[in-house]
């Protein structure tokens, strides 16, 4: 294996930026993690990345083949301009061109969920599979789709907004403005919101949950709901039951539409609820079209927080080397 | 253009079988249409196809490069075995092998909706577009997805069951056993069922509709509902409003998940409701994520009944020739 094919992966989010050296074999070699200086604007964040890349290069004998960046936002294809990144409050930032100029290295920028999907596909739970869906359930929900061995990007590079497939057109309001999106059931913010709403209607039943939040309704998070449920609180368990029913309906949609071989579930909410993998698998078996779910495997994501940098580095390797 | 690249397309459904000669340019040259002898079993239906192919070959100076068949059912990839075709009552019929043996020509068998999508993509409303969704709304609803220039087939060749994406998990019961599928709102059978159900609850308001059905509730079809609505009947118009709201929710799902450039609407129900194209386009503009629908065009299918044979012939051309 050509040593010169090592690449750099960057995972750029609203709270932290991770920059990693990844070998030609796709394995993580070293990773730097820093808080994102959102308040200082794009120039400062780009400078952080440049500094981290320099640090990673010091330990290497050769130059990297290129840099891949996954960012939580909408990215223009080819140009790598970040059209909009809500968590960073960026609009039309030419991230790819800026980093290329500063680093004198080839740079490719993509959406973070697409990068994570590529990471899981190549090095994680998706290995050896040409038809898969990755669904990442954190505060929000996003996804990536591999069909026939291609990672789908769509017409304007935004394919995979799987959090915003409707499962109940009369259901709870979503952040996107519509009703009953998958995310409005099973996203972390929705789980917390549902618990708070039900607590308001029925304070008695929610006492155990409220206690875990130190009596502060506003402090109830998805994490606290999960904790309460795992401690046996029926109120919290019912909240999660509503969430998982929405998740099952959403994954059944995806299975019927795409007929994947593998459905990979990851993200912070899933990390706290490993039992949901089997719940979703069972829900799909019971509800999806038998022909569409015949060969389906439902499994947990394997790379955790590393998927983003590994996937971004893989994208750089595919884009800038022959391997 | 090599004349030897002409192919034969077959569209095999429960009521009729169409067999056509299609030129190397993808254009329909001649078509034969016969009723499907379902009651006589697979052998008789296959013999009908063989006879029609012989008839089409008589007028040609060269042998066709191959035969493509689109069938309303589940087809095993590669082997072309028809696993299940409900309208023909076929189970595990080796259609591809049987026809190959009888015709002494290369044969490829696929699902009818996939063939229709290929036809619209190459010769119809999808020309020049690498990211599109075809949604066919007839008695049932099916679809085909082209993403990044590839027609998606899925893990077990059943991708595109777009009639069975849920839009309302508490909604009306679907034939598949679940609740609130897109098809259970906007499929022809669902439109008729909704009209009949509402008529039972409120016979007074449905009088105009009932009259069009000669007073026979069981005779109310989607076609009659559309006719009544077009004649100004508010009862029928409300039924169609429920259907189109489901259709909008379903298409918004597809746009958010796939980010297509073009959404092509076809099938018998759409043929009767050309005004729905603009309704759906407007609904998507108002409800889909702006980034996912930015460049989207919503248009009617262009090939009508010819799409099936044209697409099946195109599949044969791609499979068996270099063009």
Structural features, described:
The structure is a homodimer of 323-residue chains. Chain A is of the alpha/beta class. Chain A has 2 domains: 3-119 and 305-320, 2-Layer Sandwich (Nucleotidyltransferase, domain 5), CATH 3.30.420; 129-301, ATPase, nucleotide binding domain (Nucleotidyltransferase, domain 5, 2-Layer Sandwich). Helices cover 41% and strands 20% of the residues of chain A. Chain A has a 5-stranded mixed beta sheet with strand order 3-2-1-4-8. In chain A, strands 11-10-9-12-13 form a 5-stranded mixed beta sheet, sandwiched between helices. In chain A, helix 3 crosses helix 12, helix 5 packs across helix 7 (222-230) and helix 8 packs across helix 10. The N and C termini of chain A lie close together (9 Å). The mean pLDDT of chain A is 95. At the A-B interface, helix 8 of A face helix 8 of B.
Provide a quick synopsis of the model.
By secondary structure, chain A is of the alpha/beta class. Helices cover 41% and strands 20% of the residues of chain A. Chain A has 12 helices and 13 strands.
- How is the main sheet of chain A built? 5 strands, mixed
Largest interface: A-B, 51 and 51 residues
Count of the domains of chain A: 2
Q: Tell how many strands the DSSP assignment of chain A holds.
A: 13
- CATH homologous superfamily annotation of the largest domain in chain A: ATPase, nucleotide binding domain
- Given this structure, which CATH class of the largest domain in chain A is correct? Alpha Beta
Q: What is the general shape of chain A? A: globular
What portion of the residues of chain A fall into strands of 2 or more residues? 15-25%
Structural class of chain A: alpha/beta
Order of helices and strands of chain A: EEEHEEEEHEHEEEHHHHHEHHHEH
Gyration radius of chain A, to the nearest Å? 20 Å
Unreliable runs of chain A, pLDDT <50, ≥5 residues? none
Count up the helices of chain A: 12
């Amino acid at each position: 294996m050509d040593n010169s094919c090592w690449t750099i992966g960057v995972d750029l989010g609203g709270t932290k930026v991770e920059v990693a050296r990844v070998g030609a074999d796709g394995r993580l070699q070293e990773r730097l993690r820093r808080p994102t200086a959102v308040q200082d604007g794009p120039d400062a964040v780009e400078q952080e990345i440049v500094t981290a890349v320099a640090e990673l290069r010091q330990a290497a004998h050769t130059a990297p083949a290129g840099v891949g960046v996954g960012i939580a936002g909408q990215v223009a294809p080819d140009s790598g301009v970040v059209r909009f990144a809500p968590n960073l409050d960026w609009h039309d930032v030419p991230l790819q061109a800026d980093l290329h100029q500063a680093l004198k290295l080839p740079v490719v920028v993509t959406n973070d969920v697409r990068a994570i999907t590529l990471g899981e596909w190549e090095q994680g739970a998706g290995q050896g599979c040409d038809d898969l869906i990755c669904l990442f359930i954190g505060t929000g929900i996003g996804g990536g789709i591999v069909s026939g061995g291609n990672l789908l990007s769509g017409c304007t590079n935004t394919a995979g907004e799987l959090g915003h497939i409707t499962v109940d057109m009369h259901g709870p309001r979503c952040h996107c403005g519509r009703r009953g999106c998958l995310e409005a059931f099973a996203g972390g913010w929705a789980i917390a919101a549902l618990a708070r709403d039900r607590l308001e209607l029925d304070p008695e039943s929610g006492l155990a949950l409220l206690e875990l939040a130190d009596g502060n309704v506003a402090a109830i998070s998805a994490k606290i709901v999960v904790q309460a449920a795992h401690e046996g609180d029926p109120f919290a368990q019912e909240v999660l039951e509503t969430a998982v029913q929405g998740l099952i309906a959403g994954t059944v949609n995806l299975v019927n539409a795409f007929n994947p071989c593998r459905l990979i579930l990851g993200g912070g909410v899933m990390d706290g609820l490993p039992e949901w993998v089997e719940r979703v698998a069972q829900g799909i078996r019971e509800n999806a079209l038998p022909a569409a779910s015949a060969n389906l495997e439902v499994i947990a994501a394997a790379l955790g927080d590393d998927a983003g940098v590994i996937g971004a580095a893989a994208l750089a390797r595919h884009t800038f080397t022959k391997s």
